[in-house]
Write a structure and sequence with these properties.
single chain; 7 helices
Length: 180
């Protein structure tokens, strides 16, 4: 168990060090801090869902409703169940942030932002030519949590896996096209 813990710490430290090269860049700061804020409470995925619904058509409306509902379900699973099981501490809290950022009180593992991002992206991308936009946004939101030092890289990696898993379950349970 100690060896696994050491491997995870090494991974987290190396990824964090790689982000140090970007931190302090005005464009990177603005991009990642904004992405992190938009990811709070699954807001970005609700906005994307509403925008997809506004494009009209039954398929877009079903995809939007499915993604918005899944955002709530995902949030409950991650924030109430998984985070309470793992109880992992967050990275160093006494750092100077160049822009305002909400400091969460919950456990660090897994990243709820990453989970919501990849669950939302997978569900919204179903039969949508804007799939690339959803996944690019998911990547930026997920990485933003490492950049702003709210999550360890392993929290984000786990969040991506959980998000894709929950999205796949959502697609399976609630397909966009009903089979007869």
């Amino acid at each position: 168990m100690d060896m696994l813990r050491d491997l995870i710490k090494t991974f987290d430290d190396r990824v964090d060090a790689a982000f140090d090269a970007l931190r302090g860049n005005r464009v990177a700061d603005r991009t990642f801090y904004t992405a992190s804020e938009l990811g709070d409470f699954g807001l970005l995925w609700v906005i994307f869902g509403l925008l997809r619904a506004l494009r009209g058509g039954r398929l877009n409306e079903r995809a939007a409703v499915r993604a918005i509902i899944a955002t709530g379900v995902e949030s409950f699973i991650v924030n109430i169940i998984l985070k309470s099981i793992f109880g992992r501490g967050r990275p160093v809290r006494e750092i100077e942030h160049p822009l305002p950022i909400r400091q969460p009180l919950s456990s660090s593992f897994p990243s709820g932002h990453a989970t919501a991002a990849f669950c939302g992206a997978l569900l919204l991308s179903d039969e949508d030519p804007l799939a690339g936009v959803y996944f690019l946004s998911a990547v930026v939101v997920a990485l933003s949590r490492i950049y702003v030092k709210i999550h360890h890289a392993s929290d984000v990696a786990a969040g991506i896996v959980v998000g894709l898993s929950l999205g796949a379950i959502g697609k399976r349970l609630f397909p966009l096209r009903r089979t007869r």
